[in-house]
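The pair is listed for reference:
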Amino acid sequence: MRAFKFIIEHMEEGLIDWVKLEYSNMIKQVGHKNLILTSLTPSTLAQCPPNIQDCAVCTSLSAVEYVTSQGKGIANVLLLDPSAPKQMDPSDSVFEFLLFGGILGDDPPRDRTKELRVLGFEGRHLGPIQMTTDTAVMVAKRIVDGKRLQDIEFVDKPELQLRKGESVEMPFRYIVENGQPLVPAGFLDLLRKTNDQALDFN
């Protein structure tokens, strides 16, 4: 099966635990060296743990610069853009690179993909409901591997149980696998930690 390259244009300074978790999950989903993290500042690169640096391509080049360095042009790149007029489908497997804005989902969305849209990439959307970046990567991979978006099972805004009597609603769309929202390993532990810190702050 053809190995597609998934480019994440890192659009935040630094690398918080949530981003590390998402990037690690993307590597697991798309395979060794098929994830390219672009626009990493020196300080952000220094924060990348070994499992990310060793298994992804980590570079200070922008997405456009990286694609050019590979002897390709923007015609070889598909931008995953919530505002694109056309939905992604398996015919988009003609593209070699799939480009995502590497930001955790904002609620409400801030349309930061516009920073990439203006560069002239062909764009596709993945439906009307916002996903986390790693979920968008997983969905896009399923589509280029031949599955239609409408054939993927989703759950919107799932309520996740943290402990007995304690749950939190996630404001995003997730893939359903084995009847449960598909989230990365360690997701619930980090969610508990973040929730506890928020409660302590209040």
Observations:
- The CA atoms of residues 32 and 149 lie 25 Å apart.
